[in-house]
Write a structure and sequence with these properties.
Blueprint lengths: L6 H18 L32 E5 L4 H12 L3 E6 L2 H8 L19 E5 L5 H8 L4 E4 L14 H20 L5 E7 L1 H4 L11 E2 L7 H6 L3 H20 L2 E7 L1 E3 L3 H4 L1 H7 L3 H6 L4 E4 H14 L6 E5 L2 E2 L3 H11 L15 E2 L2 H7 L10
Helix pairs in contact: 1-2, 2-12, 4-5, 5-8
Amino acid sequence: MGVVRTDESRRAEIEEFRRMLLFCSGVLVKVRTEQESSHPQVIIAGNANEYAVDQKLVCVTSGVSFLGIAIVKQLLIRGYAVRIIVDNEEDIDRLGEIQVSDETEGSSSITNNNRIGVVVANFSKRESLMKAFDGCCAVMHTAAFIDPSGLSGYSKSMAEIEAKAAENVVEACAATSSVRNYVLTSSLLTCIWRDTNNSSLSSIVDHSSWSDESFCTSKKLWYALGKLKAERASWRVAKEKGLKLTTICSGLITGPRYFCANPTSTIAYLKGGQDMYEHGLLATVDVKKLAEAHVKVYEEMNKTGGGRYVCFDKVVRSADEVQRLEQDTGVQINTNSHDGVFRFELSNRKLDRLMSQVHRCRSVC
């Protein structure tokens, strides 16, 4: 089981990962497959020194995805080492061919202290995930599961697959002694889908709001249902096992080349886009801001931070903005019947307060 992507999107992700390595300079990997030792070796390209697992090491699932790459870059900038989980050997082979050095033209001042390891793991096998997480002090789960044969790239069965994979990840985190914190990339869709005929609903939609599972099912909002079931399962297991969990409920991800590289997830997110717009609930977030939010909430978990965070930087509230989104995504969102009155207001105040604090780098996890 894994993230199902087209060859074109996979090549785009690998190329973006290559550019990120050139930017960060001087990092790459020796990889471990499931058949090898249970203790991954992570080695800098061209250097035989093994990376010590007792240093601050964060695991990012689907780390060569559009969001994963952005998170990896933010972690490296802040001095973390990163272990990336991929779901197939093909990505490993392509990544293994990348060689970079400190002398790379245009590289940043980041040095060989920034290290990346890549591990193949199976999201359907808890033991595989535990081996991949071993030695990491935190896990960031960003994987999204897309079925190219399903409606809008996401079928009803995928919701169950997504929830089960998320449950496996959180169970593996709880069972891995080195893992102290877990950050799950959820979706704003887990907050907004409810029966609007219910007059008792608050006009403010924020981190305390939850979508209704039966409503998502009745409207065939499978992508929303998958994210909702995955987040619910994660909170249930985390509470049972005593694992510290934070979830980030993200708006539609935007950024350079995103819609070209990730058409299925974009289409799946925008199913019901007209209703989202008409109720003031259609929001987007730039991938860099979302990646920064992941690192910031993770670091705050070591103090008092935690729980759910809503993350967006723009709410689409005009026909012109809808038109631009349609042009970017190729998804039509009918606004002809809208009267310009929005019943709900999205709030990300909790995250804004956190992000506005002066960033302080931490030396320990």
